[in-house]
Amino acid sequence: MGAGFAGLVAALRLKKSGRDSFVIFERAAEVGGTWRDNVYPGCACDIASPLYSFADEQNPQWSKLYSEQPEILEYIKNVVVRNNLYPHIRFGSDVVEARFLEDKACWLVTDRQGNSTTVSMLLLGMGPLNRINIPAFPGLEYYQGTYFHSAEWDTSYDIRGKRVAVIGTGASAIQIVPSIAPEVAHLTVLQRTPAWVTPRHDTRFSRFSRWLFKKIPLLQRLQREII
After folding, report:
1. Distance between CA atoms of 96 and 88, rounded to whole angstroms?
2. Quick check: 8 pLDDT over 80?
3. 133 φ, ψ (degrees, to nearest 5)
4. DSSP state of 170
């Protein structure tokens, strides 16, 4: 269940071990999980790309050390194509029940449309990062402005020249704030608990570096181990 990193790494291991009888239930229309859903400004990974990737599917074409959302999503799609995983994926399958049938020693998986599938083993790869939480702020129902959660960023809304408040200083906020600060008229950041901040030391991979990674894969594996 789930076609994000967790579900896909399980599928890759099954495929490469010679097991081909499996299905991936994905409620969305594309793979990628959190990297498909999160499209806020500055969205990137805080783990270096040579490490934040499938161990057996290195990508010599990372543009920089800490890749951004579009590049990570493209990498995931390429891995799925290269390993012929798309035929195993049932898109639009929002699973609502998984019942263990003791008499048959198997699982009965049912999606929201009522489609049922029997499987002998059930692997759960649903991430928690698409379960948004907007607290019940007193008076929010009277607020006349626009508001949305970072995980459901409204790409149609133009924040340029607006007065903006960002609630929180977690992993998403520390990417959003510096990305929108130069564009908005006024920016207020509301922080509950101070966070530790360290330099990210992001660097771009040169064309020569990417050529070396492609010609000598061992170099990128060594970089991964060092990280």
Report:
1. 19
2. yes
3. -135, 110
4. S
pTM of the model: 0.91
Q: How far is the C-alpha of 116 from the C-alpha of 113, rounded, in Å? A: 9
pLDDT digits (tens, 9 = 90+) for 20-36: 999 999 999 999 999 99
Neighbours of 76 (CB within 10 A): 23
Of residues 66, 71, 69, 76, the one with CA closest to residue 32: 76
In the chain, what is the greatest distance between 2 CA atoms, to the nearest angstrom? 65
Question: From the centroid of its chain, how far is CA 83?
Answer: 19
Decide: 72 and 51 in contact? Cβ < 8 Å. no
Angle of helix 207-215 versus helix 217-226 axis, rounded to 10: 110
Length of the chain: 227
Angle 69-82/5-16 helices, nearest 10 degrees?
A: 20
3-class secondary structure, 157: coil
Amino acid of residue 117: T
165-217 pLDDT, tens digit per residue, is 999 999 899 999 999 999 999 999 999 998 888 888 999 999 999 999 999 99
- Residues 6 or more apart whose Cβ sits within 8 Å of residue 149: 132, 133, 134
Reported as a single tens digit per residue, the pLDDT across 70-106 is 999 999 999 999 999 999 999 999 999 999 999 999 9
CB 31 within 8 A of CB 102: no
Could you give the C-alpha distances from 54 to 3, 12, 13, 48, 86, in angstroms and in order?
14, 9, 10, 13, 17
Closest C-alpha to 48, from 64, 26, 59: 64
